[in-house]
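thread from #wetlab-drylab

HS: before we spend reagent money on co-crystallization trials with 5-bromo-uridine-5'-monophosphate, can we at least see a predicted complex? here's what I'd submit
DV: go for it
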Amino acid sequence: MEKQLEELAIILYEINAIKFGDFVTKVGLKTPVYIDLRTIISHPQIFRQLSTILWTLHDVSEHVDQICGVPYTALPIASLISVESNIPMVIRRKEAKSYGTKKLIEGKYKAGEKCIIIEDVITSGSSILEVVNDLKQEGLVITEALVIMDREQGGRKNIENSGIKVKSLYTLTQLLHYLLAAGKITPVIVQNVENYLATCNTAPLKLLNESTNERLKMDFSSRVKMAKNQLASKILRLMDTKESMICLAADLSKTDSILELAEIAGPHIVILKIHVDIIENFNEEFIKQLKDLSLKHKFFIMEDRKFADIGNTVSLQYSKGIYKIAEWADLITVHSVSGPGIFDGLRKALKNIPEDRGIFVVSEMSSEGTLTTGNYITDSLKMSATCDLVAGHVCQSNIFSDPGLIQLTPGVKLAKASDDLGQQYNTPESVVNAGADLAVVGRGITDASDKLAAILKYKDQLWSAYRARISH
Ligand code: 5BU
């Protein structure tokens, strides 16, 4: 086996499945080694050899009912193993995740069946854990993952913490030594990668949850000191004091209507959210009055701008123009689509702003057919994990467990519904159970004839669901 692994390592290097140099990962981090095992599909013999040797890691005395490859690279490998071992396979679709409706797992299986995971590379372990979560929801039992390459960046531990045994053909260190011994790489490269490994261990995963979900079990006041962002701490404290989880979406186009609503709602809400670009008679006096109300009634102001451009443009959009958002909005929303430079751009715009500011990253949207699914969500979480401007995420489901971050969930109405432009609503109770700390309520309140009564109803229902959540 040892000899075979050594030979295979050299072949993988020669077909460019392993490269050394300066690379940037998809979440914007630098790495001196790049592993791309997709290349093996162009080399059928190597492909077969690798799949066969991977399967030898499995203890044949242990019964397995299903095989599941983590999309995409491991899918063909899992298929080959399935055919060779005559064990059926399931595929976990990568795309479907619109509020638990679409079928996620393809193939024929029964709850209680034992399924083994096949993966090419583990870094943080999040891809495996994501698949495992979905398989478990279908009742499948997962106890083992077979992996070609363990990058030794904390992924193994994260997966093993979920009760899954990880067996890998190579660790990055072993691989380096095989290649060094074969004269394929220099000691300098080895040193480089080893230095990198010493500093880049991924943090223990606080993303995908289930049994380990600290956040949902904790009350808001205990979470105050766990927030990295100062404003997030203040929000959590305010939620606790006001016994409110409402972020009111004041999507009104006249300044007077917004101010009138803020006067009524102010004492009962945590955040008043506006879209400044829909206001027809915007002026600086409006901002001053809104600020005064926010101080009088103690709520924060959010501009739901959903910034999404490159850092430089976003920096200008945030601080300049007619609105000068950075000067008055305590909170803003930001898409992660453009990459981590967006955070640097926003920070630059705050150079002369002394007040606390916070960002809610839009990691998952509420609208039908949204493209914020699968890896987009996990990559968005990972990308924003190191930015201390981030107060939380806008999302629909319980996608992170860090108690210092806040889940803001839009699409909330007293009854499950939809509008005719793609908005999808869930009830206060169901969004809180799905992890919401703050619920964005717009037309449920703004369209009500008695707005105060509507606010109080949402406030009560959300708070009762939260009390039930933390007492479980
Ligand atoms: P509604 O009237 O409750 O549907 O208003 C919802 C608000 O939340 C509205 O201002 C949207 O712009 C905002 N929103 C949303 O509905 N869905 C999302 O995924 C995001 C924001 Br992000």
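DV: Residues 249, 251, 304, 362, 365-367, 394, 410-411, 423, 440-444 surround 5-bromo-uridine-5'-monophosphate (CB under 6 Å).
HS: ok that's useful, forwarding to the group
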